[in-house]
Amino acid sequence: MGKRIKSGEPSMSSEQVESSTMTWPDVVNIPRENIRTFVAERLFKVASSRSGVTILLDRDKDSAWRAAAGAPTIRIHNPKAFFTRLGHAGLIGLGESYMAGEWDSEDLPAALGRFSERLGNLVPPALAKLRAVFLPRHPETHVNTIESARKNIEAHYDLSNELFQTFLDETLTYSSALFTEEEPIPGSILVAEWDELADASRRKIDRLLDRTRVGTGSRVLEIGSGWGELAVRAARRGANVTTLTLSKEQAAYVENRIAAEGLSELIEVQVRDYREAEGQFDAIVSVEMIEAVGKEHWVEYYQTIDRHLAPNGLAGIQAITMPHERMLVTANTYTWIQKYIFPGGFLPSRRGIREDVEKNTSMRVIEDYAFGFQYAETLRLWRERFDSAAERVEALGFDETFRRMWRLYLAYSEAGFRSRYLNVSQILLARPS
After folding, report:
1. Same domain, yes or no: 67 and 158
2. Among residues 136, 169, 196, which one ends one of the domains?
3. How many Cβ atoms sit within 10 Å of the Cβ of residue 137?
4. Among candidate residues 214, 221, 226, the one with its CA nearest the CA of residue 171
């Protein structure tokens, strides 16, 4: 990863400048100031006043837009660059400004969470309607054809197995943990410890395998291998597992793992798209894979599951979801997460999943178990672990801009779940008796 150019850094070689510009062109290069910079500052002032976040601006003399005492704070170090980026590219510019070190917060999840809680009311409705006119469009390469899907998955999951090992628990489970199956007491807050995370990851997997009745002799299809924990736990029950992934890094890791555990006869790892699956299965499981499918292919994803599900079989999908109304409003919005973290990704809604499944397949949703409040804690533990591993991440070749990008990604996601804007569900699908 290219070295980030710091403000005022002396004697930068031409090679270093070229490397950073090629790696992070829209972070290094600040757009030209224009009327949209002025408009962005005014809109951000309105939004921040509605959010309950204190904004500190470093100018000739410090100025501030203050919320109530005790409110989380965002400090903008370079207001001109910040508002220029915001006016040029909306929330993508907001993220790029953070990557460039132009703003910070001592409690990033709390500050972002305040905005998430009030997302639908931050910008006046008349101006919100202009979003599609002024903001960037989705690149055609992000639409998940079979070829593009491979590239989009590689862009995230093939970064480095070692990178994910710096912040995931020993199971290398990259999805929400399940710390408890008990319903939360209203008003209570779940606080988890790091040493609980691995068991909570296994609990989540075991629940999905239980609900899809995976046991001795079960034929199981897993769409999205991850690093193999689900496939291994299914095989230990005596199931025969076919697991699909588009990540060559993950496939190699899983192959080595199952060989070391003596499970190669029970688990087959295939580097192929879900649309290329073959065979009939008693259980089909897919954990936080639908988010990478893309809205244009959701129906195809459900129909693929329907086609390969044996009579009397069960399918279990774990899905990150957003409110249905927000899904409709943002369907054509190109986001910072899509540009830098998950190209081609988009979150469905629980209502949308149910409607698409029932309209386009022979299956029905027979259970929808939501536990989004537990994802907030999962992400907090990942974020804290990632921050503490900064030197290890740097030693792997990931520069400061990358580390700020991932810190924002983890904090942004945590804020979404903590504010209940995002949720996660295990959704069980079956054909009517």
Report:
1. no
2. 136
3. 9
4. 226
